[in-house]
Amino acid sequence: MSYASVVTGTPTNQSSNPTRSGSLAQNATSHNANAFPPQYQADARTAGRDHDMASYGTSSSQRRGLSFSSHRQNQASTVPPFWVPPYLEESRYAKKLEAAYNARVRALREQDATSSIASSSIWNWSSNARIAPSHRGMTYDIIESIPPLEDDTIPLPTRLSSTDKHQGLDLLGEGLEVRYNGPTGKDLEAASIRSDHPISPQCGIYYYEINIRQKSKDCAVAIGFSTSDFSLERLPGWEPKSWAYHGDDGKAFEGQSSGHPYESGFGASDVVGCGIDFNKGHAFFTKNGRDLGVAFRDITFPSTPVFPCIGMKKHTGVLIKVNFGQQPFVFDVKDKMAEEQDNVARHIARTSTHKLHPRQPTEAAFTQELIAQFLSHGGYIETAQAFSQQVEKEQQALYGSEQPSHSDIRSPDTFDARPRQQIRQAILGGDIDAALDATEEHFPGVLEAHPQIFFQLKCRKFVELVLKAARIDKSRDTLRRNKHPGNGAASQPSAVDDVFESAMELDEEQQTSLNGHGKAPMQTNPESEEYNQLIAQTIEYGQSLKEEYGEKGNPEQDKILHDIFSLMPYYDPSPSQNGHLLDSSGRTKVSEDLNSAILTSLGRPSNAALETLYRQTESLLDVLSLEGGPASLVDLERQPGEASR
Predict the structure, then answer these.
(1) Where is the segment annotated Disordered (predicted)?
(2) How many domains are there within the chain?
């Protein structure tokens, strides 16, 4: 498995790869175990890569538990870390790739968890079940479905293709070095090679470099980009749908045999870069860190994607190393990227908001109204009132008390805001029962009208029980370590040890109470008693959830129940397959969903206007950035001048 295969969602246990639809899709093909990573070819596009990878998962020592005592390597444990070139790390497309990567990793983990849980006893709790008294809590974020990988989300180039190349070229250095090893050809004969993946216009700006390690005097080298149907027996730039900068004469070639003067040539020991600005439709090249300027303007990109492409005339002794961002670039493309982002952001900042809200005379007034409505919508009463008062003071300072107000800011209506605030605070504090009671008291019928949110709240209550048990357990572990100090792993009790210890204690207590004689009852720590009671309560509540929802045949709810129940047997569930559920945003997610449901029942918008505006803008940017353009350089989370340089 590889990073690329994770992003593209390729099954690791199949020899062939699934086809993908969309404008960028081509038929899939398979490769042997010695092949370089996934290739995008004229007639094939694969998404698998077989090579050594960094470990991504947990060790067996971290996965001790009741039903998971045996450990086997799974799909998710072989996933390498997410990677994009550093200059693209803050781009929209990098975030999109990372989201697809995380979704696929999560799907792999859930597949592994499902296969493990199928053989476990989690779904067969009984009143006599004894759970190890060493559990760790977690927070829980409801996952309703795994987002599918979109057709327009493809990995960035990572190396040269092992198949999409001239047969006389040999790949070295994990697919990042290439040399010609065939017979010397005629003057117009050449050998070219493309990268493993195409370039997405959503990058905004894409850039890569080559280092000419060796080159004979008579051999010409070209760097550029082409589509997959460009002939690999020609230098890029000589044929349609290819663009390149040639080192022998310094000319730039744009799909024809005659080029135009561009710069001086390049040769051995030079580092040459190629960049595409999808915002302006330009292509540029660099030499030893110096920007050579625009080589091609107003490029009409074909409907098929373009790939980094390098070529050389058929002469032996040529060795070229390619850098797709794995190593620092000689040219500071990160600064160029930041400059373009700032230019687009400043252009947006100059755009008037009057058409969005003609009733508001100024952008400041429009912004203030959005903020006030957001605070009121969320039930932040005190903050909303303070904000309203501050805006009023500013209005009076600017226009005087006799002038009409230019703002529609009003103090929030506390009739329903107070109860909503109470419910939100209860959920954020982990008191789900209090939130449920307050909802039924102030907004009866809401939970029945929104059964999925009701289900989320009940699952959250189960999580809070586990969290409470974990806090007690942590205190017990601290006392135990202080009472029996020691070094090394032997001093740390395992979950299995705790199971037998707890079982023996419970058996002795039960025997004494049943027989009425024998040894005196064991003196137990109050915290131990509280812990045992809490574990019993958690199991009982889990059983009730299973009885209420586990037999309904709802796959999504079954999956959620499997996930939260699967964390119980672990000594430390954080590194387990479902460790991502520990994220503390779980409470916030449930509170926001319930608040939206309450507002809907009152005939109000379920989302704040500011949130709706943000989501609509993000959706528009996603669509507009598919073909590049300014949208590919927009990030709503940054302001002009904030890009890392």
Answers:
(1) 1-79, 394-413, 505-525
(2) 1
Q: Does the residue 494 lie in any domain?
A: no
CB of 502 closer than 8 Å to CB of 130: yes
Helices 432-442 and 451-483 pack at an angle, to 10 degrees, of 150
Instruction: Report H helices in 443-554.
Output: 446-449, 451-483, 495-515, 526-549
Cβ(129)–Cβ(89) under 8 Å? no
- Which CATH number does the domain housing residue 291 bear? 2.60.120.920
Please provide residue 565's backbone torsions phi and psi, each rounded to the nearest 5 degrees: -70, -30
Structural tokens at position 141: 């974020």
pTM here? 0.68
Residue position matching structure tokens 């296969």: 115
Q: Residues 137, 138, 139, 141: is their CA dihedral positive or negative?
A: negative
**Hey, which residues does 311 pair with through a beta bridge?**
192, 222
- Identity at 541, one-letter amino acid code: Y
Q: Would you give the distance in Å from CA 29 to the centre of its chain?
A: 27
Q: Look up tokens 């390098």; give the residue.
A: 310
Low-confidence stretches of the chain (pLDDT beneath 70): 1-77, 112-153, 185, 360, 400-414, 474-475, 477-527, 569-576, 578-582, 639-645
Cβ burial, residue 483 (10 Å; 0-12/13-18/19+): exposed
Are residues 618 and 92 in contact, defined by beta-carbon separation less than 8 angstroms?
no
Residue (of 117, 97, 141) closest to 9 by Cα position: 97
| Contact in structure between 100 and 150 (CB atoms under 8 Å) | yes
**Nearest 5°: phi and psi at 80?**
-75, 165
Residue 301 maps to a domain = yes
Per DSSP (E only), the strands in 340-479 are none
CB 329 within 8 A of CB 336: no
pLDDT of residue 465: 87
Confirm whether 245 is domain-assigned. Answer: yes
Calpha distance 180→76 (Å, rounded): 38
Q: By the 8 A CB rule, do 45 and 26 touch? A: yes
∠ CA 452-453-456, rounded to 5°? 90
What does the pLDDT read at residue 391? 87
What count of other Cβ atoms lies within 10 Å of the Cβ of residue 247?
A: 25
Residues 427-442, buried b or exposed e (16+ Cβ, 10 A)?
Answer: beebebeebbebbeeb
Cα distance between residue 635 and residue 37, in whole Å: 31
Domain that holds residue 251: 160-323
Residue pair 630/344 in contact (Cβ under 8 Å)? The answer is yes
